[in-house]
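Why do we care about 3D structure at all? Because function follows from shape, and shape follows, mostly, from sequence. That is the central idea of this module. The next example makes it concrete: a single protein chain, its amino acid sequence, and then its structure expressed as C-alpha cells.
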Amino acid sequence: MLGKVAKKLRIFGFDTEYLANTDDNEIINRFSDRKRIILTRDKQLYKRLTKLNIPSFPIISDNELETLIIIMKESNINYVLSVPNENTRCSLCNKTLDKAQKSSLADIVPKKVFENANIFFKCSICKKVYWDGKHTKELNQIIDKINKEIKQV
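And the structure:
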C-alpha cells in the first residue's frame, strides 16, 4: 500500500522516494543525512529511527486516503494543488515533468488519447508520457477530500 501512496505523493508534486524490500540498515544509512521523512509500517524500524533522531513516522492505517491525510497533517501541509501542476512528478522515477507538444506524441500515445487529450507531460528521464484524462479527474477528487480534511485543523 505504501507504494500506491508514494505514487500519489509524486503525482501531487512531492519529492518521494520509495524503497520496497530494503534492509533496515540500508534505509538508515541512505537517509540518515538527508532531509527526508521516512514513512514506515515496520515498528522495529520506526523505533530504531526514533533512537537515531532520523525524521520518521509510522503508518498505521490500511486506508490510502486516511494515510495521505495523516501524511499531510504531520508534514504541516495545509493545501494540495490540483493535478497536473508545475510540481507534478513522474509516478515511476520521481523526476519533474516537462510539458510535451501534442504533435510529437502521435506515435507514442494511444490513438484515442491523442484525439481527445490536449495537455501532455513527459518525463525527461524515463520518457513516460502523461495526459489530462479521467484518471486526473479521479486524482483531483482525492485531492479535494484531502484538502477538506487538512483545512479542518
